Amino acid sequence: MQFAFKDCVLDLERRELTRGSAAVSVGPQVFDLLVYLVQNRERVVNRDSLLDAVWGGRIVSESTLTSHINAVRKAIGDSGEEQHLVRTIPRKGFRFVGEVTEAQSSGGPAKIGSRSSDELSRPALLLPSKPSIAVLPFQNLSGDPEQVYFADGVVEDIITALSRVRWLFIIARNSSFTYQGGAVDLKQVGRELGVGYVLEGSVRKAADRVRITGQLINASTGAHLWAERFEGTLDDIFELQDRIAASVVGAIAPRVELAEIERAKCKPTASLNAYDCYLRGLAHLHRGSREPVQEALPLFQRSIELDPEFAAAYAMAAWCYVWRKVNGWASHSPQEIAEGVRLARRAVELGRDDAVALTRGGHALAHLTSDLDSGIALLDRAVFLNPNLASAWFLGGFLRTWRGESQSAIEHFERAMRLSPVDPELYRMQAGIAMAHLFAGRFDAASAWAEEAYTNLPSFLMTVSIIAASRALTGRSEEARRAMDQLRELHPALRISNLGDWLPIKRPEDLSVFAEGLRRAGLPER
Question: Which domains does the chain have, with CATH numbers?
């Protein structure tokens, strides 16, 4: 179904908004809000009905709703002063008052409500100025469900190899992997991730042999640009991955010398057993909650035992200690910090040219030792080595937040979200933006971003603390106290006096703002 009004066309099936001849990029909730207003244009819709339709009934602040209404108006060429299309009815709600024409989408009959809520949440993105690609999870054809992690590892290394090509924009692994487990429309994937090309394939592993197939698709037309099959023994698995990556690069830009990808080859380890442990650890770590992180750490430690020079395994083990500290889970804090620092230092020593090792290891060092300058230097090198590594951008954003560089930090978080727009770690990026706004004195914005992060992981201690502080600083005392109740449950030992031990906040004025907000929300001094 399409709705046409003024100079705009709202296409529900494609989830696209065009104005004139240009596509308008809007966030998923802004799009859903516009759709709801247009579909219910015969009546005034109140605040509660909007919250039910767009936010699933979740409680959000008045400023969040207002900012989304303003974003709708801006997207369709309206404003709060003119209100030609979206009118505010005082003390009642809102109504879409523009003249609307309905038509079926060119792609066929509309199926309103047929998509999953996850699909409805993804906006169409404009293509970047350089060649762009998403590598989808490869199908596991081994007949053994336990081998899914092996197929995932193959794809992750292909993404890593492609990411080192500086002229190529590649979507981060975590966003690509949200399409795992079912048939997908590759044209839709291209629109949702904002890429021109999609790589898909399969992995078949039997005994000591493996077969990898891959095909490159033009996401806008669905045309097959390249397809090839690679076979070999497990001893050659990394060579097979490198060959696939080189072939994809050649298919996208034949005139670019294949030496670009050849120089990018960086095998994480020669031991498949160690690598298997590493992959299993990653699968647990990305889930973010306490029990999975507890399960991840021994897997990384086992990987290190099997391959004592596996830099990324050291880095991820160190980062487990960071995540434990950030969430107040460390039972023996001084000992855990010392072990985390040891692992992080070993990671950056072994992985001077490994972007993942420098990213997680550098961030762990900075967080655990409060040496923000050295940590930022390590993460900047990681970005240089792999400019498409989303984690390097958002963890670099956190370090800049702690150093008091709010605007630079926000730019880093935004870059990470563009590289990986549907990332399972998105709540970390949202929490980082929230903290940066808090330190900059933008308390409403801090609260709004923290509420978004809370939706994705309610147990993230930092998110709950920002919600409590920002609500208190904007005079919403009762809401702040409710958040503080949850904060005290998550970290009973947290006090105003030990905030500086919890997070490495450099500037006294930033720590003072945070402390004052938590103090007003009810956090004890000692």
Answer: 2-120 (1.10.10.10), 132-262 (3.40.50.10610), 271-387 (1.25.40.10), 390-526 (1.25.40.10)
